């Protein structure tokens, strides 16, 4: 499985925006965006250049892709799926990304970050509808039930993250049984991603 293995704080600095890729660290003064608000690299402190139309569109796409931890090919595949769905393509794209298993695990509060959620899923710590699920990119649908595997309910990473954040409105979490259900796929107002998705559509439509 292809994945980004570099320093994730560099990604936030490149976008000059907190993407919340390191869990609780992002909410402290140790956050790289707070400490070094410059683009990484030897020319990071150089005078900022005026962005072109393409550059603005590219940054919007990169922000969304990095926010969800999705590589280029997978993101392009999601865009094709979004185009085929009825409705607004940009909102469909974000809805697809939100329905990934690793994102749902994060939104339910079972992991401190999406990166941690992805690792927990790969290590067989979760089930979907009672069956083992170890592929982070599984797309969930309305009514699907995500649960912490029976042998993982005391896992330190899960227990520590469990009550750290509120659960997304489109999900229902049963804390007593450590399970969550997808009530519905999220609307745009339910997604707290600060990105103009129409710019992504414009970029892919060229």
Automatic annotation (TrEMBL):
The Small ribosomal subunit protein uS4 N-terminal domain, residue ranges: 3-98
Assembly, per entry: Part of the 30S ribosomal subunit. Contacts protein S5. The interaction surface between S4 and S5 is involved in control of translational fidelity.
Family of the protein in this entry: Belongs to the universal ribosomal protein uS4 family.
Annotated organism of origin: Candidatus Anaerotruncus excrementipullorum
Keyword Nucleotide-binding: no
Protein name: Small ribosomal subunit protein uS4
Record CDD domains: S4
Superkingdom to which the source organism belongs: Bacteria
Domain RNA-binding S4: 99-164
